[in-house]
Specification:
alpha+beta; 2 domains; 9 helices; binds glutathione
Length: 232
């Protein structure tokens, strides 16, 4: 059976990482049973990040590479029923969310208050006293350097605010009144859109992006629909 290496549940979600939730959704969509191996150490993944899966003796890291593995190994087409242009649109939205929206949310969680206090308490509050004061500082420093390297950390608050709002509006506009992101049935795009929408809408983290998402009634209803469908 496939082993999914993931973080423990947090913030009202089955995983604080939308990438780990993406793989959970993909496996559920594909009807493939898996065993969750829970860890707080992303070093357990072959690329130093989670999610990762172990399948047939192979350790595979990165949610997108895992998607390809599932498609190739189990003969699944997550975009079944979509034409080439729809597949391209689904691909582009997923890349927007994973490569940009995600980083806005990381900045929001780790570098703004009161969100950082929630992160520190949830992730590090259970550590022994001395470690508890040191580890969050080091972890935050690492995240800050990621944000600087990716570039999101170099924008002004106002610029990041606008980026997040535009991303939420793009998602809501494309979703329209469809039940799922690409149409009447869930497809691969939903495995990305839902976890990231839930990361904004269903978690306790305040942000301009969240304020905007909550104004988009169709996005909020979609998040609920997906949660009921995949995590009832
Ligand atoms: N491109 C990767 C991104 C995974 C990722 O960024 N995981 C984060 C948690 S959301 C992580 O493990 N970070 C730990 C670290 O970078 O030290 C994927 O699609 O799986």
């Amino acid at each position: 059976m496939i082993k999914l290496i993931k973080f423990p549940p947090a913030f009202n979600l089955p995983d604080p990482s939308p990438f780990c939730m993406k793989v959970m959704v993909l496996l559920k969509m594909a009807g493939i049973a898996y065993e969750a191996v829970v860890t707080t150490n992303p070093g357990k993944g072959p690329k130093g990040k989670l999610p990762a899966i172990e399948d047939g003796g192979r350790l595979i890291g990165d949610s997108e590479v895992i998607r390809w593995h599932i498609e190739r190994t189990y003969g699944i087409d997550f975009d079944k029923g979509l034409g080439p242009t729809e597949r391209a649109v689904a691909h582009a939205f997923a890349r927007m969310i994973e490569e940009r929206t995600y980083w806005i949310e990381v900045h929001n969680r780790w570098l703004t208050e009161p969100n950082w206090s929630t992160i520190r308490q949830t992730f590090f509050g259970g550590l022994p006293p001395i470690v508890r004061s040191l580890v969050p500082i080091l972890a935050k420093r690492k995240v800050r350097s990621y944000l600087d390297g990716q570039g999101i950390g170099r924008h002004s608050d106002e610029e990041r605010r606008e980026m997040g709002i535009r991303d939420m509006r793009a998602l809501a506009t494309h979703l329209g009144d469809k039940p799922f992101f690409m149409g009447a049935a869930p497809t691969g795009a939903d495995a990305t859109v839902y976890p990231f929408a839930a990361a904004v809408v269903d978690t306790p983290f305040a942000s301009p992006m969240k304020d905007e998402a909550l104004k988009q009634a169709n996005l909020v209803a979609y998040t609920k629909r997906m949660r009921e469908r995949f995590f009832a």
